[in-house]
């Protein structure tokens, strides 16, 4: 279990991935984004998660470059993730999309590249492209996003290399227990996007009660719940104080009773699209 913000989990293939990162979904490219990413890195974050469709890879790249210089960090100390969008699925299209993301980010490689959504009939060719990038040493780790069990079963039938990560919507109202169990059996690291349900859980009564008992915020309780379940988590924020708060997870521990109470909140309720009905 993570004991420090810079602690990492070891993925299939031996690459280490930070347990906590900064997500930049819906953060507009520009000064605010650059400031948020630089603040996160200055306060100890080492993982930044973006995607082609977020249209902010250039800003992330600028922030990473400035943060490395300002904090005297080597590129190898950071873990940068991006994702291929639905419109670019297919073998050659995915290879081209990867090069486009690298160019925008100003990087020579990505630490993790994901298929963003399991668009039916297209993701297997993209997976072949990710395998080719991985085997050529162009990317350190490869994985998928928003894949359900049947998508994973499908891709595992033909894959030469198993997905190393599956990044999915995951929070106390969508705990994804069956998917988590399947992923654990196959050595796939689960990573949570929207871990705070885009702010919709911050007034949830059970969570506020547990937070009060620990002298912590609801956000900290949820993120600690992720970590104690072995889930990588990437909360989003552009506010420096919230970025700091979201990383202050290592001076307390949830009891088994706390964990069970949070587990019991599951409603299988999504705030994002259903992966079985999302092709765009």
TrEMBL record:
InterPro entries (UniProt xref): AKR (IPR020471), AKR5G (IPR044500), Aldo/ket_reductase_CS (IPR018170), NAD(P)_OxRdtase_dom_sf (IPR036812), NADP_OxRdtase_dom (IPR023210)
Keywords: NADP, Oxidoreductase
UniProt KW Repeat keyword: no
Residues that bind substrate: 116
Entries under CDD domains matching the protein: AKR_AKR5G1-3
Residues annotated as catalytic: 54
Limits of the NADP-dependent oxidoreductase domain: 33-266
Record-annotated site: Lowers pKa of active site Tyr: 83
MF (Gene Ontology): oxidoreductase activity, acting on the CH-OH group of donors, NAD or NADP as acceptor
Highest rank taxon of the organism: Bacteria
Record-stated family: Belongs to the aldo/keto reductase family.
Name of the featured protein: Glyoxal reductase
Organism ancestry: Bacteria, Bacillati, Bacillota, Bacilli, Bacillales
């Amino acid at each position: 279990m993570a004991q420090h913000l810079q602690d990492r989990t070891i993925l299939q293939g031996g690459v280490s991935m930070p347990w906590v990162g900064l997500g930049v979904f819906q953060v507009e490219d520009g000064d605010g984004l650059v400031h948020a990413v630089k603040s996160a890195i200055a306060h100890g974050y080492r993982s930044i998660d973006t995607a082609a469709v977020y249209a902010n890879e250039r800003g992330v790249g600028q922030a990473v470059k400035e943060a490395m210089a300002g904090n005297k960090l080597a590129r190898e100390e950071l873990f940068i993730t991006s994702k291929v969008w639905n419109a670019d699925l297919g073998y050659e299209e995915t290879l081209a999309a990867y090069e486009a993301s690298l160019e925008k980010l100003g990087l020579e490689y990505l630490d993790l590249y994901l298929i963003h959504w399991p668009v039916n009939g297209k993701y297997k060719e993209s997976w072949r492209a990710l395998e080719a990038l991985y085997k050529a040493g162009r990317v350190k780790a490869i994985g998928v996003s928003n894949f359900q069990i049947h998508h994973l079963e499908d891709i595992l039938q033909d894959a030469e290399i198993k997905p190393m990560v599956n990044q999915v919507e995951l929070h106390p109202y969508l705990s994804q227990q069956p998917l988590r169990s399947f992923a654990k059996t196959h050595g796939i690291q689960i990573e949570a996007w929207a871990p705070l349900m885009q702010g919709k859980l911050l007034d949830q009564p059970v969570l506020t009660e547990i937070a009060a008992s620990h002298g912590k915020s609801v956000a900290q309780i949820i993120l600690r719940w992720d970590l104690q379940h072995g889930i990588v988590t990437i909360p989003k924020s552009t506010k420096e104080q919230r970025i700091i708060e979201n990383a202050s997870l290592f001076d307390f521990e949830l009891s088994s009773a706390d964990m069970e109470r949070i587990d019991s909140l599951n409603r299988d309720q999504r705030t994002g699209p259903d992966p079985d009905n999302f092709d765009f």
